[in-house]
Each structure stands twice: as C-alpha cells, then as structure tokens.
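3.2 Worked example (two chains)
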Amino acid sequence: MIPVDEALDLLLGGIERLDVETVPLDLAGHRVLAGPIVAGRTHPPFDASAMDGYAVRAADVETVPARLAVIGESAAGRRFAGTVGAGDAVRIFTGAPVPQGADTILIQEDAERDRDVITATETVAAGRHIRRAGLDFHKGDVLLEAGRRVDPQALALIAAAAATSVEVVRRPRVAIIATGDELVKSGAPRTDDQIIASNSFGVAQMVHDAGGEAIDLGIVGDDEAAIAAALDRAIAKRSDVIVTLGGASVGDHDLTAKAFSAKGVDLTFWKIAMRPGKPLMAGRLGATTLLGLPGNPVSAMVCAELFLRPLLAALQGQRHRRRLFRAVLDGNLGPNDRRQDYVRATVRLEDDGELVVTPLNVQDSSMLRMLARANCLIVREPLALPQSVGDPCRLLLLRPID
C-alpha cells in the first residue's frame, strides 16, 4: 500500500490539459478558460452619473442657494447632445452619460425644482458622483487569466468586455462502468439478493459538478470478458477517463484488475493506505486514465472526492487545491492504524468563528446515509494517537456549512 499523497502525485503526473474549443458566451458558464480574457472595450465607455440629479458646473454652485436653468435631460442609453454652459443644468439619471461642459452631479435631494428652474441648496465639488470612463477597465486590459472557471461573476465580466464567444478547455469525457452481479439499475426488477447501482449516480454528479461529461455505460456482471468489452466501448467513445466501480479488490469475483491487465493497462498503483478506500487502483492506456474505485458506496465516493476531482481539474488545466481546515473535536476518536483515515463527520461554525466537528457514530463504508449526513471528513494521519473532546484536528469540507 502507498500513501494517499504519493498516489495522487502518481495519478496526476504527466496529465496534460485537454484541447481547446470555442463556445458561445451563453454556453461558457462553468467551463474553464483556455486563455486570458482581454477587454475588447473600455467600461464604462463614457463618464456616467452615479446618482439621479442634475449635471452642472461646480463653479455655478459654489455659493447657495443658486438658481440654474434646466436645458435638457440625459438618460441611460440616451445622452443629452448639447453642452452645459454657465448657469445651466441637465436633468440626469443613474448610468446616463455626463453632458459636455458639466463636471459634477447635484443630487436631486439637494435641488428644488420649479418647472425649468432648479435651486441648488447644497454645494458640490467637481467630479462628485461621476463614474469616469474606464473606471472598471480599459480596452486591452487582461481581466481574467487562463484556468479560471467561468462562474456567474466571471461570465458577467466577460460579457461586459464585449466578448461574444470564449475559448475554453474541452470538457473531460468520463465513462462510468459499474461492475457486479449483485447490481441492478434503479427501477429495474431485482431479487432479494441484489442492490441498486447507486455509485454511478453519485460519481456522475461529481463529474458534472467538476465540469466534465459523464458517460454511463451501465452495469457489467462479474465476467472478465464482459468487463473488457465495456472498456472497449469506453475507449471507442474517446473517453479521457474510465471509472470502474467495484471489482478492484482481491476476491474471486473481483475481476477489474485482471481486465485492466488483459487490455495492457499500465497500472500506476493498486491499493492505497487509506480508509475507506484501500482497494483503489489507477492506470493509463494511451491517453486515457483508468480509475478503479472500490465497490463499497462510501469508499467509492470518498475515493472519487480525493482522486477523481483532482484528475478532472488537471485535465482542464487547473490545480485542484484541497484545503484542510482547522477545527476542534466535539467527540472522541480512538487510535488510528497504519492507514490515513477519513472520518465522516458534521462540522458547525460557532459564533466566535471556531469550527467544531462531531464524528458520526457509525463509520461503516457501506452506509450512504451517514455519508449524506456528513458535511466534512476528519483527516487522521497514520498511527494517530487517541483524541478527545476539545483536541484540534484537520478536516476536509464536502459541502458548505449550513
């Protein structure tokens, strides 16, 4: 068995970013930028009012009250075409272009209007309440770097920069093969000796969340030839990653490793010093990475969190940073063995900002209910000593803290 960090380094070693494609702006969300975003225009492209009020000359309101003649209106998308001269004012609204000749905005609360005449009741300095052209960015500015995932904020910025299409990294194609005579599809007839193939759904959702495309190749029984045929189908679909579920251990019915070997897969590792998830294997077949996850549901999902997510990030030109948070225990933990342990737990944020984590009382690797309850994993090093309430620990978040 090899350590988790060593296995992850081996898995990601030599992984190259996938090729680039251009997509319309409305399809760029959640994709990863293949290159920097450079502004195609200046934003805002003109001096704009930040408030509703009147565009005036600061010199005309140095002394108040001051009477000014309203000579027109400037609205968003429809500027005043004239020039503001001495004693003039232009009614202006938020976002509208500041007219030529005006150098400040008198907010409407500081003006009393009588038909086409206003009386300024407060002075205002030059430049007040004006957003200068280019306040946000100028044409040619680099706004986003390659490797940024296009979240809603990034997408809005790209659109403001006048882009209509975006170069992004191709989505990784991930074929998912569930193995085992005991498995049936959800909704299909089953005997009392069979269970639903649930792992496929969880892994497919994880692939989607990580920006990939999941290809479900269904369930394959405990037959080496059938598993090999499924691998052929996955390769024919030009899969970047093939994920098998189950059959990675050493039992008489665990045939995935044999099928890998028969196909000429160059195994990178087999068996990890971790719990849950010891029977995890990985290898390469040409440009395709194969990841053999354990059959136990919790083991499969934890291994996918620790290995599949970083792999998909690397294929998209990103570095998957697994941040470990410091917390204090609200429960007791016994001594650990020689494997790195990932303890399912719930963490809460106290009013003082401290994270307090409670280990779940059952850690069986078959219990999805416990995994669904957990919002974090307590990471325990090999041979860790017993820990008690109040002791410090490190944890890995699985989802946001409620």
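3.2.1 Second chain
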Amino acid sequence: MKESDALRADAKANRERILNVARSAFAADPTASLNSIAKAAGVGAGTLYRHFPSREALLLGIYRQEIDALVELAASLLASHPSLVAFRLWCKRFVQFGAVKHGIADTFSTAVPEQGIEALRSAVSCLINACEESGDIHARARPDDILTLLGLLLRLSPSDEGREQTERILDLVFSGMSTDIAKLNGYRCRDE
C-alpha cells in the first residue's frame, strides 16, 4: 500500500468516525458543539473542519450517510427476508432515522439533495415491486405515497409513546396495502 493510499484510508476512517459520533451526539443533544464531537471522535478540531467546514455541512453529511445506508438496506433485507417482512423492516429503519432527524431538525436548513430523494424512491420501488410480485400488496402502492407517510412519522416524538404510535400507524399502512383489502379497491366513502 502506498503512503498516499494509507492517508486516504485514514482520512476516510476519520470522516466515518466523525459522522458516527456526530449522529449520536446530535440525537442526544441538538446543540452539541463541533469541538465536543471532534474530541469524542478522537480527532482534532482541524480534522473535523477539513471534512465538514460548518455545522450544516456535518448535518448534511449525516443525512447523506443515512440515505445511503437506507438505500443499501433495501436490497440486503430483500435478500434475507420475505418481501413483506423486508418492506416493514425497512420502513421501521427509515423511522429510526427520524430519531436523529428529530434532534437536528431545528438546526438543519439545507434540503436533502434531489439525488437522495431519487435514491430513496428507487429503494421503495424495489420493495414495492417485490411485494407485488409475491402477491402481498396490491398494485396501488406508489413510492412517493410511502415516503410521504413515512415522512409524517418522522414528526412523532422518539419517545416510547411515539414509537408505539409509529407501530400502530405502520400496521394501518401495511393493512391498507394488503391484498386482503384489495377487494375493496375502488370503494370510496362518500357523503350520502
């Protein structure tokens, strides 16, 4: 291994360590200082600022890392679980991502880049397609609809009560997509 490769590997390891420490720190305390994060990550403040020149840059780095992990998780879950179980597990992980978001939402003003949204749509589309192919859900489910519903769950408190409410709402979402309910397709309640 060349010296430059070793430096790049070290820099990458530092970046990942900073992101992991920052994720936990911001979830626990949204006002955590960047210096305290650098210290907890075992790097100097200069190293942190080289990778993340501002608080927003660090927060965006956390978001991007989480989105990448969610996208990769979809294929991994589909490879190791039945499609409906994989989809439900993925949705739970998405909401767990919200615990970090909940802690930093007030300080985060930069929108998630469109390529991140597209990557999430693609992951949800793969999960939906697998569930449709297995006959577990009907063909009315759309990635943007699922992401909108999951986005609403991100607003719930990460408390025990919030987690219980999340489980109930996910039960409703998956019941609504179930092929057992599909016989009601086309039925709409209307004022008489």
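3.3 Remarks
The two ends are 76 Å apart (CA to CA).
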